[in-house]
Amino acid sequence: MKVKFWGTRGSIPAPGKDTIIYGGNTTCLEINLDNGRKVIIDAGTGIRSLGREFESREDHVDIHLLITHIHWDHIFGFPFFSPIYNSSTRVLVDGYNSCMKGLRYSFDNKMGDGFFPVRFDELKADIEFINKLSHGSLDIDGTTIDSALLHHPQGGLGFRFREDNKTLVFLTDNELDTKEKSFSDFIIFCQGADILIHDSQYRPEEISEHRGWGHSDYQSTLDLALKANVKKLVLFHHAPERKDSDIMEITVSCQNLIKEKNSHLEIEAAKENSVLVL
Ligand SMILES: [Zn+2]
Ligand SMILES: [Zn+2]
User: Fold this and answer.
1) Mean per-residue pLDDT of the chain
2) Which ligand is nearest to the CA of 238?
3) Is the pLDDT reported for residue 84 higher than 90?
4) Which ligand is nearest to the CA of 199?
5) How far is the CA of 275 from the centre of ligand 2 (A)?
6) Contact by Cβ (8 Å): 172, 183
7) How far is the CA of 238 from the centre of ligand 2 (A)?
């Protein structure tokens, strides 16, 4: 299994000289399964570049698209994902129960004069909502995907991929509260993962001001990874104001905390265009 980050930023795109290393595009990941299938997670602004890459390869696009939730930073790249204007494209949508509503909303909505010149029904691609993950597992040619409810305003889903003996967990827009029962549920969900990609939007000193906003600080994220015996933790959903130098400093702080605990947990921050191999 390979994971490519097309967008790592939280809340709003943050292009510019201070975000060159970790990237300014919002959430989009490409998961290449060993069986050849492609699973895309979220349609933040990173999905635009992914669409251009598909076009340059002139591949027939046949993908699963899993949507964690429909906050705008996770869906507003969808109208700019060029393969949806091609009749040979097939997109099997799954994820949080409102995901199709969110994808349609960018095109068709009853508010004001609308936000986009094209209607959803004019898209040429075959886009089908398969709606499995809200009810159980999704099996893609031998790879099993399970979901967990996120602790996030208006809800959402996180995903766990199991392929042979490898496990990848993706939990973004998730507020960890180590005192709540949900924390132990997340420990179970992440147990033994080879890679955990988790929301770490805030520094520990920032979290009290942002309780209830649905994001985590890096200390709680680290606690989760340690308690769940994760092998590698990838910090994700970088705050829009976070500069590359800030993210590097946060990563080093996390690595120092790990050294103090004599743990072998590896830690890095998600970088746009980077690839992880499991
Ligand atoms: Zn978000
Ligand atoms: Zn959100």
Assistant:
1) 95
2) 1
3) yes
4) 1
5) 24
6) no
7) 12
Ion ligand 1 — residues with CB < 5 Å? 10, 73, 173
DSSP structure class, residue 237 = S
What is the CATH T-level fold of the domain 2-132+141-277, as seen in this structure?
Metallo-beta-lactamase; Chain A (3.60.15)
Ligand 2 centroid – CA 151 distance (Å): 10
Report how far residue 24's alpha carbon sits from residue 113's, in angstroms, rounded to the nearest whole number.
29
Which pLDDT does position 111 carry in this prediction?
62
Closest CA to 246 of 13, 11, 21, 28: 21
Spell out the domain ranges in the chain.
Answer: 2-132+141-277
At residue 57, the pLDDT reads 87
Amino acid at 220: S
Amino acid identity of residue 158, one-letter, is G
Structure-block tokens of residue 276: 């992880």
> What is the structure's pLDDT at 63?
98
pLDDT tens string 102-137: 999 888 876 656 778 888 999 999 999 999 999 999
Q: Is 124 helix (H, G, I), strand (E, B) or coil?
A: coil
For residue 226, how far is its CA from the centre of ligand 2 (angstroms)? 24
HSE-up of residue 62 (Cα within 13 Å, Cβ side): 6
Compute the distance from residue 77 Cα to the ligand 1 centre, in Å: 13
Q: Are 50 and 6 in contact (CB under 8 A)?
A: yes
Which ligand lies nearest to the CA atom of residue 26 in the structure?
A: 1
Cα–Cα distance measured from residue 54 to residue 273, given in angstroms and rounded to the nearest whole number: 14
Answering whether pTM is above 0.85, one says yes
Question: How much distance in Å is there from the Cα of 73 to the middle of ligand 1?
Answer: 5
Name the residues around ion ligand 2, CB cutoff 5 A: 71, 173
Distance (angstroms) between ligand 1 centre and the Cα of 82 equals 22
